[in-house]
Amino acid sequence: MRPTQIVEATLFASQSPLTPSELARADGSLTPEIVERSLGELREEYEKEDRAFQVYNLGDGYQILTRPEYAPYLERFDSVPRTLGLSAAALETLAIIAYRQPMSRVDIEEIRGVGSTTVLHTLQEWEMIDVVGRGEGLGRPLLYGTTRRMLDHFGLRDLADLPRLEDLPVTLQAERTLEVPLEEGPVEAERPVEAEGPAEVEEPAEAEEPAEAEEPAQARPDAQPATV
Q1: Which has the least CB within 10 A, 139, 165, 176, 197?
Q2: Over the chain (228 residues), what is each successive 10-residue block's mean pLDDT?
Q3: H or E element in which residue 55 lies
Q4: Domain 84-228 falls in which CATH fold?
Q5: What angle do CA 12, 124, 178 make, to 5 degrees?
Q6: Could you tell me the CA-to-CA distances from 125 to 90, 134, 179, 216, 217 in Å, in that order?
């Protein structure tokens, strides 16, 4: 059995991205270096044969996914897994957190100008954000940060792949900036942009609730784009 066949079979069966080290566990003859070469060979083969799928780099892992241009055909079938459709309110809140994390609910509401409890709960349920600590202010408010699933959803390797702050609205640049270096150039999206879901209900901003013992959201199976 050739290494490329082992890697291909493992990726085909996986419902989530796998790192080279994880793929190497499939067989004793594999190493991360061999896996990397096999991934390159598979990509070249799929490109040469003009296949409807490709090996995509998502975060620090790899996954075989249908090419974005075939999404309109797959949407006709209820049996095909779908990715999350984020509303405008969810995308706005997620962007604010991504660039200025960690952030409390009050800080987010101060920027958005509307209550954000509902949208924060939704993003947490979808595992796009999680509680990463508590602030030092009154009541020690919960602080939110983005997750690995958020990076996978948008096809990003890490936060450094986000667009440069100077290319974004001034609101996101105020007061704080990311603590990671940002690379030059636009981000190349590897996944299709999802249609907006139902608009989030935005309530009036409310005072920060007293500290409560909350645990980070538990991991659950990913809803990935249509795999082959």
Answers
A1: 176
A2: 95 90 94 96 95 87 89 81 76 92 93 91 90 88 91 81 71 45 40 44 52 44 45
A3: strand 53-58
A4: Arc Repressor Mutant, subunit A (1.10.10)
A5: 90
A6: 12, 19, 26, 10, 7
